[in-house]
Amino acid sequence: MSDFRNTIRNGFLGRAFAVLSAANAAAAAVEAGRRPKTRDLNTLGIDPASFPHSR
Hints:
Layout: H1 2-10, H2 12-31, H3 38-43
């Protein structure tokens, strides 16, 4: 059973969950007028250096 969990975590479902979580966190930060975390931007494939800091 442990191998199954590792496969999910490191496979497609784990990646999909990470991307959805990062998108949600980034959207909430932008709505609040804050800059999203670098980790979230990297997960979404956005270069943190090209993202504006704050409004």
